[in-house]
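Honest question from a wet-lab person: if I give you the sequences of every part of a complex, can you actually get the arrangement of the whole thing, not just the pieces? Trying it with mine:
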Amino acid sequence: MSPLFIALLLPVVAAVALSRGAPLKLASTPVALANVLLILGVMLSRGFVSPEVVSHVGSIAMLQSPALNLSVGVDGLSLLMALLTVVVSVCACWQIDNKREGARAEHIVAHLISAGALGAFVCRDLLMLYAFHELALIPTLLIIALQGRGESANRLRVAWKATVYLGVGSLILLAGLCWLMVSLTPEGAALVTDLDSLLKLAKEHPLPALKQAQIGLVLLVGFGTLVSLFPFHTWAAPAYATAPVSTAMLHSGVLKKFGIYGLLRVLPGMLPLALSQAWLQEALCWALLGNILWVGWVCIHQRNLDEMLAHSSVMHMGYLFLGLAAGGAVALEGVALLAFAHGISIALLFALAGRMRAQLGTLEFRRLGGLGSHSPALYVLFCFGMFASIGLPGLANFAGELMIFVGCFGHPGATALGMVQWTAIAALWGVVMSAVYGLRALRALFQGTSGSGLFLSDPPLAQRGGLVLLASLLLVAGTCPWLPLRLIAPAPKDKPAAGAVAPKAH
Amino acid sequence: MITLQHYLWVSAALFCIGLAGVVARRNALVVYMCLEMMLSAANLTLVAFSRFGVRDGLPDVNAQALVFFTITVAAAEVAVGLAIILALFRAKQRIETDSVNALQG
Amino acid sequence: MPVLLFYLFAALVVGFALAVVLARNPVTSALCLAVSFVGLAALFLSLDAYFIGTLQVLVYAGAVMVLFLFIIMLMDVKAEESSARSRGAQAAGFALAVLLLIEVVSISSALKRSGDTLGQHPISAPLAAKLRQQSGRPLLKGLEADLAKGELPDAKLMGEALFGRHVFHLQLVGLLLVVATVGVVALSRKDGGSLSS
Amino acid sequence: MSVFYSLTLIALAGLALLLLEAFDSKRALRYARDASLGLCLFVALRLLTGNLNCSSEALPSWVSPWLSFDPLAQTFVVLGLVSTALVLALLRIGESYIRQYTLGGSMSEFYAIPMIMAAAIGFMAAARDLVTVFVALELVTVSFYVLVSMARKSALCLEAGVKYLILGAMSTGVLVFGMAWIYGVCGTLEFSGIASALADPQIAKAPALLACGLMIAALGFKVAAAPFHVWVPDVYQGAPLPISAFLSVGSKAAGFVVLCRLLEGFLGAGSVVAAEVRQLLVILGGLTVLLGALPALHQSSVKRLLGFSSVSHAGFMILGLSSVAPGVTGTGLASFYLATYLPMTVLAFTVLTVMRAHEVGDDLSEIRGLSKRSPMLAFCLTVSMACLAGLPLSVGFLGKWLVLLGLAQAGQLAALVIALIAAACGFYYYFRPIVAAYSSSEEPRKAIEVSIPAAVLLVLLCAVVLVLGLYPAPLNGLLQLTGAPAAAALLR
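Yes, you can. This is the full assembly:
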C-alpha cells in the first residue's frame, strides 16, 4: 500500500468528518498539517534519486477490460506539485475564520480541492488525472456560487461564467486526451491510459508531426482554458476576486497549476514535435503575449487590490506558457519551478488580501493608505509576496523566470532571433509592468497617510504560522533554488543534450 | 395478374393513410382509429408475406399466429385507450380547457 | 380471386381509409373504418387466410368498431374545427405519409418475390399431408384427413399452432388481457371526489 | 429452481396481489406488498449469485422454443427485477401523496401491475424471436398505459396518459409493420434466422434497410430516442413520481434489450446492412443526445428536467450500441450504461418522492433552501445530479467516457463533438438543482423529516452510486456482454 493513498484519503476523510459535524479546530488544520508531514516523509524516504524514477507506486484495479487502474506514484515533478498542494492547503485552512457563518462549508471545500489536486498530481493514469481535477473543480465552482462575496446575482453570474468556461474547457481537454490516447494505442489493442506506458509508446512510435500539432492544439485549448490562457482567461479574474479567501488561494495557487502540470507531462514526452510546427508555436506565442502584455495592461489599471491580484495571477501564466513554447530542458525546469513559486506567492497574497478585507471592509486603493504603521508584520509579509510576484532576485519566482528567459535564448544553433526569442523580448516588458503595479500597490496601501478610520492590525501570533511558512518557503526556494531543482532536474551528468527537444529557430 | 407487390402497395397505402391521420387529426378518437388502421396494414403485410412464402405446401402459420396476437393485443389496447380517453373526457367536462392543456410545450 | 375483385376490395380499403382521415364527423370516420376493415377481410380471404379474415370481421369490424361508436355516442363528440395549428399538422402528416408511401412502394419492387403471383406459390395440401406424416409430428385429429382430401383446414391449422407451439404466447396474452381488464375497470369507475390538478 | 419458474412466480404474485384487494384486508395487503418487493429482490439476488438454473434444459418444453436465458437475458432480468423492487419501494414512500389522486385512495393496481411487468421484462429479455418480443413488449406497454393514467384525479396525469397512449400505440403500429417487413425479407421471425439471413450477400438490400429502419424507429419510441421522444417530458411530469422513475428505467430496459438483440443481427458479422445501420444509429444517437440536452437547459421543473435528461442518456446508450471499441461490445456498453444509470436516476426520483410526500413540489424555486430543511435530501440530490452529469470518479462518468471513446475510435468526429456538447450542457442543467438546494431561501420553511424506510433507501442508493463510481469492477463483466451464445445455440 503506497503512502500516497493515505495522503489522498486523509483530506477526503476530513471533508466527510467535517460534513458530519466534526469540530473544526480538530479536524481541519491538523489533518492538513498531517498531510504536509506525510508528503515530506515521502520526499525524505525517496532520497536523492533521479527525478525520472517513479517511486511509492501503488495501484488499485477499477476495471479489468478496458483496463482502468487507480495507480499512483511520484516522480520529481509530481512531488514538487504535491508539496505545493499540501502547503497551500494547510495555509488555506489556517486562514478560514471559524466564527464566520459558512466556515464549515469552506473547510470542506478546501479539503476536497486539496484531495482532488493531490490526486491529479500523484496519479499515473491520464484519465484519472483528468478525473481528479474535475472532482476538485466542482466544489470550487459551487462555493463561489454559494458563498462568494458581493451580491448574490453577481456571484451567481461569476460562478456560471467560470462553470461554462471550465466545463467546456475540460470537455475539450477530455476530447484531446482521448484523441491522444487513441492515437498512441497500437491498432486493435485495448486502450492505454497509463502515463508511463503512453510515454514509452510515444518514444517507440512517434506520431506524425502534423498530428502531434493538431492534438497539441486541442490540449493547449483545453488545458489553456483551465490555466486562463489568453483569450480563454476572462473567467479567472472575477472568479478569484469573488471567491472566499481559502478557495481563491487554493484555486489560483494549486488547482490552476494542474493545467501546466498536465502540459508538462504530455507535451515534451508524448508530443515533442507539436510545438516545432511553426503555426502552433506562433499561435501560442501570440496568446501568451496576450496574457503578459494585455492582461498586464489591464492589471495596471485596476483600482482594487483583489482585482489586481486576480489579474496579475492571470498575467503570470503567460511566463509559464513562454517556457513551454521555448521547450528545452532549462526552460521546462523553469516552468516547473515558477509554477511552484507562483503558487506559493499568490496564495500568500490572497491570504493577506483576505485578512485585510475582513478588517477594513474594502480594498480600494484610493481609500486606503498608511496601513504599514500599525501592522509591521503584515507589511513585511506582503512585501515578500509582492516582491516575489514582481520577480525580485532572492525570492523563488526570480529563479523560475530567469530559467525560462535563459531557456528561450539558450539553445545552441540559434543564430537568428525566432518567434520565441522575439516573444521573450516582448515578455520582458511584462516584468516592468508587474513592477509598476506591484510597487504602486505597496505604496498605495502601506505608505503615506492612513485613510479615515481604516487601519489594520497584525494577525495574532498563532495565526501568523501559515503566512510565515509560505513566506519562508519563498525565501528558501529563492536563495537556494537547487533544493527544488534537485527534485525536477536530472543531475548534470545524465542531462540530455540541451535543445534535444527544442524547436528550431528560423 | 395480382402479385405480392399489389398487396404490399395496398398495405403501404393503408399504413401511410393511418400515419397521416395520426399526425394530422386532433380528435383523440379519430387518431385512435387511424392507429388501428396502421396495425391492420401491418397485418396485411404479414399475411401477404406468409402466403407468398409457402413452405411444405402450406402458408407459414407462425406469421399468422403473430397476426392473431396483434389483433388480440390491439383489441385490448383499444379497450384501455378508450377508457383513458373517456376518463379524460369526463375530467374535461368539469374543468376549464386551458388547465387540461397545461402540458403544452 | 379474380383480378377485378382484388381491385374492387383494394379500392374499398384505401378509399374508405381516406374517408376516415378526411371526414369531419367522428361517426362517419368510424363507419368508414368498419367498411374499410370489411374490405381488408376480403383481401385476407383472397390470401387463403380464412381464420384471420373472419377474425378481422368479428373483432375489428364487429367488436372494436361498436366500442368506438358507443364511446362516440356516449361522449357526444362534435365535428372537429380547423385551426391554424391543425393545418400545419395536416401538411406535416400529408408530407410524411407521401414520403413513406413512395419509399415503401419503390422498395417493395426490390424484393425478390415481389413479382410473383399466387399461382407461383401454390398451396398443396396433399404434399403437406405427406410431409407431416413423414415428420411424425403430433397431429390434430382430422387435420390429416382434411389435408389429404386436398382442402386447406385453415382454422384447424391455426388452432394447432396457437394451442401447440404458441401456447406460451397465449398465456402471456392472457396476462395482458387481465391487466387490460383491471386497468379498464379502474379507469372507468365513476369517481365520487372532485378533480384537483 | 429455474429462472422461468421464478419469473412466473413473480407474475403470479402480482395476480395474487390483485386478488387480495378483493378481500380488502388492509393489514394483509401491506404485508403482501412488502413480501412481493422482497420476492423481486430475492429472485434478483439468487440470479446474481448464480443460484438459479438458467440452462435451456430447465425450461418446460412449451417454453423452450421461445426463451433462452443467456448472459444478456440474465442481466436484463436482474435490471428489470431491481428496478421493479425500487419502484415498489418508491410507491410505499410516496403512497400518502399518490392516494390523494387515485379513486378512493386505491393503490392495489400500483403494486400488482409492476410485478407482472417485471416478469414480462424478464421474458422479453430472454426472447428468441419477435413473436415473444411483441407479446411481452405489449404487456409492458399496456401496463404502462394503465399505470400512467391511474392517478386520474389529476388532470395532468390523464393528459399525460392520453399522450403516452397515442404515441405508444403508434409505435406499436410501426413495430408490427417493421416485424412484417423483417419477416418478408428474412423469411423468419427468429433472431438467429434474421442474423443469418442478413449475412446472406444475395439478400435485397433496400427492403432489409427499410425493415431495420422501421424496427429501430419503433424501439426508439420505447427508449425515448429523438424524434420519438416528444412524449417524454409531458408524461414524466404528469405521471406519479414512482411511475416516472419506472418509465425511465423499466421502459428503457425493455426497449434496449430488444434493440440489443436485433442490432446483433443487423450489425453482425457479414451483415449487408451493417454500415448503414451503424450510421443510422450514430445519427439517431447524436440527434437524441442533443434534443434531450438542449431543451433541458431552461427547465424549471426537476421532473421535466429528468425527463429530458433521460432522453439525452438514451442517446448516449444508442451511441454506445453503435460502438466498435476493442474489448467492449456495443451491447455490453449499453447494458453497462443502463446498469449505472439505474441507481442514480432512481436516487433522484427518491429524493423528489420524499419531498413530494412532504408537500414540496419539484420546481427549482421550491428546492431552494433544501439543505437547511433536510441536509440528507440535499446531499442525496447532489450525489445523484453529479452522477447524472457524469462527474469524473462518479458512476455516471465511466459510461459516458467509454461511449465518447468508442466514437473517437470509430472516427465519428461529428457525433463525438455533439456528444461533448450535450455532456457540457449536462453540467449546466444538472448543477442548477444543486445550486438551488444549497442557496438560502427567503422565507424560513419547516424541516423535512425523512422516514426510516426512505432514509434506508436513500442511504443504500447513495452507497451503491458512490462505491460503483470509485470501484466499478463488479460491473466489468457487463462490458463484454453479447447475446451471441443464444444465437449459436439456436443454430445447432
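Two things worth pointing out. Residues 50-75 of chain C form the longest helix (26 residues). The radius of gyration of chain C is 23 Å.
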